[in-house]
Amino acid sequence: MVKALLLLSLSGCTPGGTADSTPACGPLRVASWNLLHGYLDEDPDAQPFDRVEERLALAGPALAEDGLAALMLQEVVMGATDGYPDTAEILRVAQGEAWSLTFGDLFGTEPASSGNGWGQAILTCYEVLEANNHVLTTTSGTPRSVLHTRVSVEGDEVDLFDAHTSGNGAIEVEDVLGFVEELGGDRIVLGGDFNIADDEEGMEVLEDAGFTDVIGEPCLVEGGPTCTNSTIPLGEEGNRSDQRIDYLWVRGLEVVEAEVLFTSPMETSEGVLWVSDHLPVVATLD
Question: pLDDT (tens digit, 9 = 90+) per residue, 67-77?
Answer without folding.
Answer: 999 999 999 99
